[in-house]
Amino acid sequence: MAVYFLSGVLITLVLCASVRWWIQSLLNQERLFLDDAKGYFLITCIVVGFLVSAGFFWAGQIIGYDQAEETSQAMGLAILLDVMVALLSLIWGLVSLKEPEQY
Prior knowledge:
Elements: H1 2-28, H2 34-63, H3 69-96
Helix pairs in contact: 1-2, 1-3, 2-3
């Protein structure tokens, strides 16, 4: 069950961080404006949180975590934790995205 928790959190964190890195590189190349980048990052983090949570809900049902009361509650907690990690990475990304300086 611990692997179930940690793998969902890790996948969500890696996906959101890699999208933030990619968007920051587009900002540095001046191919994207800051307001647009923040909007794209917002949508991407919400979609990543939803898709990873849905995928782990499906995986939990395949594994059989929904059959017992203890693992069923832990499966719900893991899904909420995935969404929370997506929202925390959203906050971090929105604060840390910067435009390059104009001279």
